Amino acid sequence: MKEADHVEGFAPEVLWVTHGGSEKLTERLAIRPTSEVIVGTMYAQWIESYRDLPILINQWANVVRWEKATRPFLRTMEFLWQEGHTAHATAAQAREETLRMLDVYEDFARNVAAVPVYKGVKSANERFPGAVETYSIEALMPDGKALQSATSHDLGQNFAKAYDITFADADQAIKHVYTTSWGMSWRMLGAVIMVHGDDRGLKIPPKLAPIEAVFVPIVRGGDDRPVAKAKELADKLRAAGRRVKVDDRDQSPGWKYAEWEMRGVPLRVEIGPKDLESGSVMLVRRDKNKGEEGGKVAVAFDALESAIAQQLDDIHAAMLGAAERFLLGRTFAVNGRDEFFARCENRDGMIDIAWCGRAECEAEVKAQTGATTRNTRPLKPGDAICTACGEAAAVRAYFAQSY
Which residue, 77, 131, 282, 306, has most beta carbons within 10 Å? Predict the structure, then answer.
């Protein structure tokens, strides 16, 4: 009752508990789909004065939502996410925090996950229930569907008033705080798998990889010297802060190559008897295909640390570059209504149009094509008419089918 708008917006996804064992509960329980209720209740107790602000909470938590059609990582009934909740004295401070976190998420997507995204404002229809404004980063998957990869919400005073979160300001007036919330879930891992993976398995961006490089010693005729040298080199790399592993299992080198390629380790370090004689190892990049230029290079023992650092930087740049080329190649600025509806229906990618911003227009597009707005941004010079319906344009919007 305190947060009717919020509950109404989440109603289709709320999972209710009606029985405990065989006993029917006198009052059903809702398993939380997000944490505003918990946080709002506690902020009302914690915050008394402007000196308590801003209050900034970040947490990792599991939440549960009723998903009729589940997909691993993308839509699951229970999922893990990182979520933040903040409270501020003014609307401007809350909006600043909302936009700051949106930038943090964009930076992470590009510079850690190597997933390029479009950043913008959600439409009113796609806005987080109870928010004043919702911002998102949106990625494009290889099948032409968009993936909302993170969101940041300016909640205004809506939750503060619902939970009576007030503070005594410097002028002694009692005021309601302004709150924000923001989050990124393990859906981002699904994006990494789909954007970068290939028929051989995963390709993990170096900054995300639990193992940056794996040593595969090549043992012939019982000569264990390559194993000993691999461990020596790995110890030096670990001391330099690198995440490396030596695979000394009793399996053939070819079996190990395939295993670590499937797991997506960015670099493989091959070392055999001939390499010991030449004082070098062979570095093999996971992001390159067999025989592709630059995919395999010999590196001297004493140059290994710097070579791995450079190769990992190059791998990130190459993975991000490939993903950016795909995103840009599947983004279409469209002016004609017929082309717009056809591209949305065909799942061609991100369809960029001048848009009126009306809920009725978005509903019609969704009914005919399955596509919705992903996010919006300011109009360009010359934008005047909505491509979808012919009304006056208010924003530019990316439309796409989505997960």
Answer: 131
